[in-house]
Specification:
By secondary structure, the protein is an all-alpha fold. It has 2 domains: about 60 residues, Helix Hairpins; about 80 residues, Monooxygenase (Up-down Bundle), CATH 1.20.1280.20. The protein is about 70% helix and about 0% strand. It is globular and about 60 Å long.
Length: about 180
């Protein structure tokens, strides 16, 4: 099986270049590619083929990790469409979104002092996951209509929410100890 290391991840897995993916098909294609690229199949081959196998397996793994996660897939679609997210240098954000972020961050800070910190965090997580779902739907609509600037804005907001979810997980782990 030949793998084109210059193809995009959608081509690699033979799936449609859209935000909404058939996850079962993605997993099936990943397993098929992994089976063909397994290092044991190349153990007795020349060094160049073993190196290629490692590169191809790494490329397949990277592609799978990118496409299986909604936020990474959204960012990748932006990249494929020539849109830079500028997550480090672009500080412009919708003021209403920023206010909402401040309130969510404040609720995280207050959670530790609440009577039941884990329950408080669970409530905040549920709220954030609802907002993440809204961002995913907004991205899907923007991508469907090729409104890549709106898709970019949505993805940047989504990244903020994703960071809050990671912070909740870290805080829960600290509280569990």
């Amino acid at each position: 099986m030949q793998i084109d290391l210059t193809s995009d991840f959608f081509e690699l897995f033979g799936v449609e270049n859209t935000f909404t993916l058939d996850q079962e098909l993605l997993v099936s294609r990943f397993n098929e590619l992994q089976k063909h690229l397994h290092p044991d199949k190349f153990a007795s081959r020349p060094d160049s083929e073993r190196r290629w196998s490692m590169q191809a397996a790494s490329f397949v793994n990277q592609g799978y990790q990118t496409l299986r996660a909604d936020l990474q897939r959204a960012s990748y679609l932006l990249q494929l469409n020539g849109i830079d997210i500028d997550d480090e240098t672009d500080t412009r954000m919708d003021p209403m979104f920023l206010m909402e972020q401040m309130e969510l961050r404040e609720s995280l800070e207050l959670a530790e002092q609440s009577q039941d910190p884990l329950a408080t965090l669970a409530g905040t997580r549920k709220q954030i996951k609802g907002l993440v779902s809204e961002q995913a739907e907004a991205f899907a609509e923007a991508a469907k209509s090729a409104d890549w600037e709106q898709a970019r804005v949505t993805t940047r907001q989504w990244q903020f929410l994703d960071k809050l979810l990671r912070e909740i997980k870290e805080l829960e782990e600290r509280l569990d100890v």
